[in-house]
Structure prediction request, 564 residues.
Amino acid sequence: MSITKISSQRSFDGSYNRFKHQSQVLGCEMTFGIYLPPNMESRPSVPVLYWLSGLTCTDENFMQKAGAHRLAAELGMAIVAPDTSPRGEHVPDDVDKSWDFGHGAGFYINATEEPWAKNYQMHDYIVEELPALIEANFLVSDKRGISGHSMGGHGALICALRNPGRYLSVSAFSPITNPVKTSWGHKAFSQMLGDNIQKWREWDTCELISSAQERLPLLIDQGAEDEFLHSQLKPGSLSSIASRSGHVANIRIHHGYDHSYYFVASFIEDHLRHHASALIEG
Amino acid sequence: MSITKISSQRSFDGSYNRFKHQSQVLGCEMTFGIYLPPNMESRPSVPVLYWLSGLTCTDENFMQKAGAHRLAAELGMAIVAPDTSPRGEHVPDDVDKSWDFGHGAGFYINATEEPWAKNYQMHDYIVEELPALIEANFLVSDKRGISGHSMGGHGALICALRNPGRYLSVSAFSPITNPVKTSWGHKAFSQMLGDNIQKWREWDTCELISSAQERLPLLIDQGAEDEFLHSQLKPGSLSSIASRSGHVANIRIHHGYDHSYYFVASFIEDHLRHHASALIEG
Prediction:
């Protein structure tokens, strides 16, 4: 459970820190960022929002670009941003070094097929190993929220849906809602999970939500000018299924916005307040 | 005066746009970013804050990392972020390709020595060509503020001090206040301005402020843990000279903060409000 500090920077009177550690689950060294709000000692309980980033990102993109520290400091919330896949020279990567599979594209699932299964166990890392590490090493509570962008929005949704009780709040920006029906999902799932599509469905938000018992209030933001909206993200499918299944899903489509972090930054305040209402005020 | 759009992205209901244009002053193609607040048409007058970035930066760093769009949208202020030097294969660069001279390090001065003089005329670009271009192409007023970080903080201060009446407000983060006495300044000024130190003094805030007639309210923020504080930045020198010369300089030293954009983001709201009080409410 040991972690090594890489850097620490003051931000909005709190601190943004990067750590590395040896992951047992992933079989490689991993890096994560953690924003700690000011006055940790004097707060009764600091909850943790886990942020999962999208394809090609590392632990750094969200912390640099989302403008989330300001409100996390004000609300008294920690934010943890892990990397998006296992990494290292010994960790298999896509043969073509493409940007949508392999390193930087773990899809937050547990691979069953080799050569991926040995390292690509991102679901278990995010849901089990990382929170245990965070809660053992920082003055935070076990109240957890989860959010993310694109592949990370998919990750947040499947982690919450597969693990009732583990998260008190969930939200997503521009999530891949139905990967079994899109090319990103096909490419990753066929290699990591094999040819049996029944197995893919266990990692698909639209499939999972129809049978989920837990009713977490769900906030999803999507840009109307997002270049991946119709081909990869499909929020309309999720909206229909969630509504039929009795889930309270607040899915907002925003005119003019694209897939970038400028979109995330524009609405991150609403997401942090959504999580705070479950994690702090709740 | 023609400009070509590279990209446009919605951000906080306004838009962040990047343009390129052929600069007559610099003799090369230049790129700049401009944030335009929402509802431009219905506002009587949108002032422009010019942001000058530091060593190694391009037009993009501030726009991605400072979290400034939120408040610029709320206040109704445009922000223009130019590049930090002329660029292009035909533009001379440091022989050693170092990070503190040449491309990415124009120091916002007008070079007099060759091979630099032909392109490195960043002062005239920032003060004259760029505002003329902005005011001809966008629905903005001629009310201008100027700010920046590190080398760009130096740039903001010398542009304001050398051009009374051109800016209604000025501020800086971690500025190089006294380049004639530091190694960054020596390296750049000796090559771009030659050996006569008298000429260097015309581009040094501590030298300029002692004889400046205009009294602009000056906000300067500096991190106490900034690795360049004592070697390159020297806010104490500026504080003494400004005070002796009767300038109202609010120089704040912030415990724990470093030289990064996390520091800038933490206090950018104060700077935007400082500028708004002169540009909008004034």
Summary: Residues 32 and 130 of chain B are 9 Å apart (CA to CA). Chain B has a mean pLDDT of 96. DSSP finds ten helices and nine strands in chain B. The longest strand of chain B covers residues 14-23.
